[in-house]
Amino acid sequence: MQVFPGHRQLLDCGLCDVVVVSSPNMTHFEILMDIINHHKPHHVLVEKPLCTTVEDCRKIVNAAKQRPDILVQVGLEYRYMPPVSKLIDVVKSGILGQVKMVAIREHRFPFLVKVNNWNRFNVNTGGTLVEKCCHFFDLMRLFAAANPVRVMASGSIDVNHKDESYDGKVPDIIDNAFVIVEFDNGTRGMLDLCMFAEGSKNEQEISVVGDIGKGEAFVPESIVHVGLRAEGRTGVKIEKAEDARIKYDGLHHGSSYLEHLHFLSVIKGESIDAPAVSLTDGLLSVAIGVAAQLSIEKGRFIAIQEILQC
């Protein structure tokens, strides 16, 4: 194994064809630009969020368009969690009809301690609704099969990190929020985030309601519910969602492993020729998070176009 003092030395060594970027959020832009502009093509899987600002995301998207020899996938791996993946299949099957509402609840533990506590400040993370919740905004877009129009949010830092101080600075990352997202096909999404809710049976509860039926996914119980309006409560089917390829769940319930397997198959040409989560997906998941953060600050709806034009 070789260790390098920095990413540029790694790129110059000629030993690798694929790079995984899992560094702190605020470093993504510089590292990605160096990878994309390097004379040797390197395929890249970049951990979410793509970047901390929409402007930087847009620059990455435009730069990557000039390198058709490089595959770039954004690490929004919640798509790969077995119950979420199962719910995606249910929605795509059309059994629920036209999707009208998507509700996602994440009730969990506070942010973990990371190197030099970089994740305690909005300037480094993009804000909680970018850093953490881009996952859920990506899923909302996927379920709605539409793009966001405007966002309204209410949130605060009420419990966590208030007694912490780093170089004289107190953390400013919010620990709870409600977010409403309106989509261009009339679908509405709602996020209920609480990061001081360790006493929860499930960390994520996802509900997708169409005009014919409703589907739900529960993590980590790994259970999916599917019911039709015509059959009522007694007709709800409950199914365990599992993937035999997962040998160790980890914090993301095996999704990171499945994400890497899929990206590798794309690189090898064994599956579809495009990454499952595109740079545009990454940009829009960040844009919704940025709009939500701004909505909390301004106390009003934020049009996505307002964010994209910044």
TrEMBL record:
Picking any one GO molecular function of the record gives:
nucleotide binding
Q: Which residues form the signal peptide?
A: none
InterPro entries for this protein = Gfo-Idh-MocA_inositol_DH (IPR050424), Gfo/Idh/MocA-like_OxRdtase_C (IPR004104), Gfo/Idh/MocA-like_OxRdtase_N (IPR000683), NAD(P)-bd_dom_sf (IPR036291)
> Which ranges carry the Gfo/Idh/MocA-like oxidoreductase N-terminal domain?
3-75
> Which residue ranges does the record assign to the Gfo/Idh/MocA-like oxidoreductase C-terminal domain?
91-302
Q: Which PANTHER family match?
A: INOSITOL 2-DEHYDROGENASE (PTHR43593:SF1), PTHR43593
Provide the protein name: Oxidoreductase family, NAD-binding Rossmann fold
